[in-house]
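Changelog excerpt

This revision adds worked examples to the README so contributors can see how folded entries look when concatenated. The first example is reproduced verbatim below.
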Amino acid sequence: MTPGTDLPMDSDIRTEDTGAPTDLTGGMPATAGAGDGATFTDDERATFTAIADHLIPAAHGMPSAAEVLTDDRLQFVLRARPDLAEPLKAALRPGLGSSPADRLAALADEPTNLSVLQLTIVAGYYTDKRVRELIGYPGQMALELRSWEYPVYLQEGLIDAVLARGPVWRDPATGRRAVSAGAPQTYAERWSTDARSPEGGHDGRDRT
C-alpha cells in the first residue's frame, strides 16, 4: 500500500507520488494520432535498444529484440498503438539508471510506463515476419468449427487453467488490476444449466 492511501501498490497513484511525467492516470487511453511520426533522440533509441537486448537476447537460433526492433518496426507498433508513444518516451527518459536492469527496477514504481516499454518490445518482436517464421507461427487462420464436436482443448482442461488463473489485465478506466468476483473456475461451471452462469441456458447434454 502507498502511505496515506487505500490504493494497492500497482495503482497509478504511485507515479503521482514520485512525480514521474506520465504513467497516465486512468491507464493507457487510445489517443488517436498521438504516435504518428513519434521521434526519439539518439540517447532514447540507444536506451530502447539496450533494454530490448536485455529482455529478449539472442538465443537458440532466435534473433535478439535489439536486432529485430529497427526504426521501421518501432514505428509499425506506434502506428498501431499511438497511445504508447508518450509513456514509452517517459520510460526512456534520462535519470532512471545507466543499465537496463537499473532502469527496469526504477520503472517498477511506474507500472504503466513499464508495461508500455515491455509491450512495445514484445509487440515489435513477435510481429516481425522472420520471428514468426522461426517459431512456426503462420498468423491468423480461418478454422472450421463444428458446434457438435467437443474440442480437444476442452478435454485437456486448457480453458480450466485460464479460468482458474483469473483476470491478468488492467482496467483501462482505472489502471488497476482487474478483479472478477464469483467468476467460474472451470469450463463446466461456465457452461451450465444455471441461468446465472455466463453460458446459462445450456441443455445439460454431455458434450464429451
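The second example, added in the same revision:
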Amino acid sequence: MRAGFLIPLLAMTAAAWAQAPAMPPPHDPNDYPNPYHVEEGWAKLGRTFGGISAVDMDPDGKSVWVFERCAKADDGCAHDKTLNPVLKFDASGKLVKSWGAGAFLYPHGIFVARDRHIWTVEGVSQSGVVANVVHEFTQDGKLLRTMGKSGTTGYATDRFDGASDVLVAPDGSIFVADGHSDKTNNRILKYDPKGNFLLSWGKLGSGPGEFSAPHGLAMDREGRLYVADRNNNRIQIFDQQGKFLGEWRQFGRPSGVFITRDDMIYVADSLSSEKNNPGFKNGIRWGHIGDGKVIGFIPWGEYNAIEAVAVDKDGNIFAGFTNVPNFRKFAKN
C-alpha cells in the first residue's frame, strides 16, 4: 500500500507539482494482458494467515513486510496474544523476522521508511474493535513513537477514527489516511518529522479533495501523493500541501496502491462489482504514472479479498487478502 523501495528525494521544482496526467480515454477495464502466475505457498509461515490489508517492501527491494491479523480474517489479534502479526519474508519466502505478539488489536496498514523503520496502522475492525493508532518501530520491534491513543476515536489532530494507512515522505513528513467508512473520519493529515501537526484536508464526499474511505497511500518520484479513495472508485492525486491535482478511475475501486521507484503504479481492487463499480472486475491493475494508462491486469475471483499490494525490484507482485485470508506472490511468466 506504498511508495517505492528507496525513492530519491528530488528538488521540489515547479514541475514537481505539475498537474497529474489526465485519465485516459475509456477502455474495457478488464481487457489487459496478465503476464503473471501464482506461486502458491511461497511464504513459509508455519501457520494459517489471517487477514492482510498491509504489505510493503523492505528498502532492499527484495524482502517483504506483512502486518497480519493473527490467523483470523478480522480481529484475531484482539483475542490471540500469542501470535506475531509483524512478519518479514526474504526473497525465497523464508520468515526471517516476526514480532509484536500482544501489542496490537487490529492491523491495517504498514510502511517501511527510508531509515528502515517500520510504521504500523491500526483502525477499527468490522466487529467493532477500536485501535486507531499509528506506531513507529525499529526492524526488531522496538517501539519508537506512537501517534494517537489506542482504544479511542476522535477528530482532533492527535486522535483518529478509522485510521487506514501511513506514509513517510523522503523529507520525513508523515501522512496519515484517517477514515474507513462514511461513519468515520475521511481526511488526510500531515505532520512534520517530529510528529508535530502541520495541516489536514478532506471530508466525507465525492468532490475533489473529499473522501469516502481513504484506504491507502503512495508517493511518486516527484512527491505527488496518491490516495486510494475506495468508496468513490478513484485514486485522488495531491501535492504535499493538499492541493488537488487530478483523479484516476481507470484502476478500479482501489483498496491498496503501490508505486515503484521507476514510477509504475499497482492497484489492488478488492471490491469492484456490477453493483458498486459497473464494468470493473476485482484484481490487480498496473500502469505508468507518466500517462496514467493501465497496461496489465491480474483478475481474481474471490470478492472482498485482495486489498494489499507491493512489488519487488524484479517486478514480482505480493498481495494481501483479507476476508478470504492469504498472502500470495505473483511471479512473472
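Reviewer comment on example two: The first strand starts at residue 36 and ends at 39. The radius of gyration is 18 Å.
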